[in-house]
Design goal:
Layout (H helix, E strand, L loop, with lengths): L2 H12 L37 H7 L26 E8 L2 E8 L2 E5 L2 E2 L16 E7 L4 E6 L2 E6 L1
Antiparallel strand pairs: 1-2, 2-3, 4-5, 5-6, 6-7
């Protein structure tokens, strides 16, 4: 019972309205002007980022999709081992792959006929008659056999 007067006193304190607000008149005030933002200038050491339009314009049109499947290599005698370049090696567990470029295309090869990598879902990258005989991760070498001739490419 003693708590009842205390609760009523607290309730009365919180429900009153404040009379300190200014009386409203029938005249509408104009909206406050917001200052126009000034363009930021980069401070020393910072380079301004390009606008979205500049990024879109800089993108070349007709670019080849880097994630598109590799088109099956055609067997032409014009391709020589001089065009073939070893660009990298990948080792995962007990398997190894070599990254090569040949005739303007890039792809991976594994040990075997035409460098076919089982389970990759991609066609063989090398033309018929080429065989990957070894990939040495320690030495950075790819060993190929082309028409009976052994070739070694190094990083």
């Amino acid at each position: 019972m003693l708590a009842l007067p205390v609760l009523l006193a607290l309730a009365a304190c919180g429900t009153g309205s404040s009379s300190s607000t200014a009386p409203t008149t029938g005249v509408a005030l104009p909206p406050a002007r917001t200052p126009e933002p000034t363009p930021l200038t980069p401070s020393g050491g910072f380079i301004a980022m390009p606008s979205p339009q500049q990024v879109v314009e800089a993108q070349p049109h007709g670019r080849v999709d880097p994630f598109a499947p590799v088109v099956a290599a055609t067997a032409t005698e014009e391709r020589t081992s001089a065009e073939l370049q070893l660009t990298g090696l990948i080792g995962s567990g007990r398997s190894a792959q070599a990254l090569i470029s040949l005739g303007g295309q890039s792809g991976t090869v594994c040990v075997g006929r035409q460098g076919f990598c089982p389970g990759s879902g991609l066609p063989a990258f090398l033309p018929p008659g080429w065989t990957v005989t070894g990939i040495d991760l320690g030495r950075g070498e790819l060993r190929l056999n082309q028409a009976g001739q052994q070739r070694v490419l190094s990083l």
